Amino acid sequence: MQGNDLFKRNLQALFQQDEILAARLFNINENSKYDVFVNQNDPIDINIINKETLQYMYENPAKDIQNMLENTEREYKRYPIMYFYGLGNGVFYKALLANKTHQRIVVIEPDLEIIYIALNMIDLTQELASERLTLFYSDFAKYAHFVMLVTKKEIKSYSKLYELHIHTPFYEENFADDIIEVNQNIARAIAHMFASHGNSIDDNLQGVDQHFRNLTKMIKGYAYKDLIRARHKKVKTAVIVATGPSLTKQLPLLKKIAPYVSVISVDASYPILLKHGIKPDYVTSIERVELTSTFFDHKDEKFDKDIYFIVASLTHPKTVEKILPRRLVLTMRPSQEELRMKIDKYGFLGIGHSTANQAYQLAYVLEHENIVLIGQDLAFGKDGASHAEGHAFIQQDEFLYVTAYGGEGEVRTTYAWKLFKNQYEKDVEEANTNDVKTYNCTEGGARINGCIEKPFNEIVDEILSSKKPKKLKHIKKANQKEIDKNLLTSYKYIKTKLSVQNKCKAKCEKVFLKLTPKIDRLLELKKESKINETHFDELVSISEEIDRLKDFFSTKKNMRYAENILSISVFFQELELAKIAVAPSETVEQKINKLLEWVEIHKYWIFSVAGGLNADIQTTINASQDLLAELKKRNLIKQDDSFGDINETFVFRRGAI
């Protein structure tokens, strides 16, 4: 079959979305496991049969596919995103994508040869090249790939509609275990994406507040990119020290090998290492709460003098205060707001919810060939302990269970630890593709998929057989000229942000005050059973006004400064709106009810956006006063310059929710 021009064109289109899969398919010369039967009178009547079991993919291909298509379109014709397990002969997906409402069809196929057959039989070049047909081979599709998929902007709003459709009974009968695993991985990826959005505008604004409060100290301090450049590839192995119950038994060996490896301690482990005289090279911290600052209460000038404390810029100012005057490296997280500030010298680190994830990402960026985890239990110990001896805090009891270290049995964990575990597994998968070996030497707790599980002493003998002491360079703080430049860059960003956000807020208020009385009147009519088809045009007009407001927000400049708020204050409303969007609307009554529900939720949407913008504006002004003072002190701006007035209250001039 490989001489088939159609196959070559399909392969070229597939190469644009998955070059590894395309390369594997290119090396297949013919199908050996399956036979293909094509009805000469109907070229799309294609069946596939397993030579060994004599099992057919379809009973009657043309009829089966027609029935599948009709049933799917009856229930799902308005779904922009759909997920299927099994490619089959490819005909069904070609027909399904004729409906332009289906923006993307995700297909996971467990058998490479079936993909090979389908791409030889059906022209899917346009569908593959545009990625409207997104094809995964399940052996290659790991959890990390699904995380990347569901976090795409055009997909995540429809995540509550997720359902894995099985192509035919053939797949259920032959790939049941793989179906379960794929379904679990996609569902877990969606949960991970939801968690990354957070569920609290207050939590989001706390991060905004603390980032801007710490901004001046970040700019005047040590720069993350300078540190990475100075120490890139300088040490072969990193040991990440977390605070699980198993850590205590690993400390003597860690002390012995510390001179030869990069020791990366999470904040909670730092007091334990200090107590045992084990000096880390780096201490990471990412938490926003003040309680974390207590890990840095004790200062030991001799012990601390060579340690870099790598801390997220959104951490609590008390943490920053207690770390100084030690070597503090404040880094931004790769959020849209921080990426757009254009002060990249201070770097981006810390995707995920845990400083242990932050520590792993640091080890990866420094390009250690081996990353060793100890004390990373992510589970309660057999005695019920949540952390190592000497740790200051105790984890609240929860009763969730995951696969145990070693793969046998289960251990008790928490929701938060599961989130940390998910992020670890995503990062470890990415590291594996770049030939970085991750060893979980915790010898207890939860299994972290993708890691090599070995006792700590064996790993030490294996990867540290040649003990070469590390030699790490120190870096200097930025010079005054560079500090001035970055302070001014931050000032200009904040001024522009506030200007755009105020315009967006004013637009929201105007539309809200115009539409709310109309929406409330229509809702009252519905309550009185007086709404009918005469109100349809008015509902369409309101909906169009809402669309114009959304178009206003979707412009590049407005979205740049509003996205931070939209991502948290209205994200979960968008998920509900997606469910309304795909609901049936065949009759006039259905259309009216759907439109009414649509505009009602958007009333809350507009209110939430305006309130969120106002809160972000006031938080930013309040938190940026130190930056303003520093700029004036350096005579970089006029003494009467300001970011605007601080007004914590937000109330529409009239009307309310």
UniProtKB/TrEMBL annotation:
Domain of life: Bacteria
Classification via InterPro entries: MptE-like (IPR002826)
Pfam family, one: MptE-like
Domain 6-hydroxymethylpterin diphosphokinase MptE-like, first and last residues per copy: 210-382
Alphabetized PANTHER family for the sequence: 6-HYDROXYMETHYLPTERIN DIPHOSPHOKINASE MPTE-LIKE DOMAIN-CONTAINING PROTEIN (PTHR41786:SF1), MOTILITY ACCESSORY FACTOR MAF (PTHR41786)
Name this polypeptide is given: 6-hydroxymethylpterin diphosphokinase MptE-like domain-containing protein
Organism: Campylobacter majalis
